[in-house]
Amino acid sequence: xxxxxxxxxxDAEPAAALAKAHALAGGSDVRIGGxxxxxxxxxxxxxxxxxxxxxxxxxxxxGERLWDGLEGLDERFVMETAPSPAVSSI
Length: 90
Description:
By secondary structure, the chain is mainly alpha-helical. Helices cover 27% and strands 0% of the residues. The protein contains three helices and no strands. The two termini are 31 Å apart.
């Protein structure tokens, strides 16, 4: 991509995927992108140092549950929330 950003899609366990990402990045920091299941897998494997999550409002009762079974995150991370500005639909 413009600016030198490269994306790799890997089908592996979280620890192996992260090790490969670090190797490809020459030991630099890497960002992991994905949906709910990806976030949960990396959090459960304790492989996340910093997390930025964007939550999009959906109809209740649909989608995947992100926080179930991840109790204690507030003890591992400093948590901050910031509302996004309202966007009107056209």
